[in-house]
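A reminder from the course coordinator: this example appears on the midterm review sheet, so study it carefully.

Given structure:
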């Protein structure tokens, strides 16, 4: 899998490429930044050591699981990780999570990362891409709808964020 370049709306260029084990420290730091925001993703902090993350990335073989990172000016600025079902019954399915750094949002980076993720899913024969998003996450839901995802279910009160119940929204794209 090769690196690709994308022009963003603010004039910067992002390089998208599969993660390598040497990205482990940057990814761990990145996950802590996104987690500390507290509003968009379930994970509040990285729960692994850098060595464990190195092994996780090394184990992502590009067929069962893959991590794509986006770099802007050599800084890790976005991430998508996709994991395919491991059994015959769910091998047609892949779940994913994605994010961009706060100062790299709404300029097309998420669209570029998800486009790359969808292309990967197609290339390995995945038929259905699925994810869960907080019902309060308007920008993420807009991105998924724009890319053709449909809502499959809304789970009332699935999460409590800042003391308020928040729906879990299950979305899917058939490929
Ligand atoms: C969700 C996220 C990955 C989207 O990536 P992004 O780079 O910001 O998205 P893009 O710039 O590619 O915009 C995607 C679409 O979202 C919509 N959008 C952009 N800004 C928006 C806003 N402020 N409110 C609502 N929708 C918005 C537009 O439809 C846009 O498409 P368009 O630019 O072609 O019109 C990113 O905002 C992010 O990291 N958010 C925090 C972490 C997160 O929520 N992860 C997903 C958890 S399920």
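Designed residues:
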């Amino acid at each position: 899998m090769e690196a690709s370049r994308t022009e963003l709306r603010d004039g910067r260029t992002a390089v998208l490429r599969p993660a390598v084990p040497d990205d482990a420290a940057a990814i761990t730091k990145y996950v802590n930044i996104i987690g500390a925001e507290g509003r968009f993703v379930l994970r509040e902090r990285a729960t692994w050591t850098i060595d464990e993350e190195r092994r996780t990335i090394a184990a992502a073989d590009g067929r069962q699981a893959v991590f794509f990172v986006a770099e802007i000016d050599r800084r890790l600025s976005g991430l998508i990780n996709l994991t395919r079902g491991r059994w015959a019954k769910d091998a047609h399915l892949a779940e994913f999570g994605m994010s961009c750094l706060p100062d790299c949002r709404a300029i097309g980076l998420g669209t570029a990362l998800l486009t790359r993720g969808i292309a990967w899913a197609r290339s390995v024969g995945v038929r259905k891409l699925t994810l869960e998003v907080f019902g309060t996450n308007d920008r993420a839901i807009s991105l998924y709808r724009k890319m053709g995802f449909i809502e499959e279910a809304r789970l009332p009160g699935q999460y409590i964020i800042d003391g308020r119940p928040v729906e879990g929204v299950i979305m899917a794209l058939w490929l």
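The domain at 4-127 is CATH 3.40.630.30 (Aminopeptidase). The mean pLDDT is 97.
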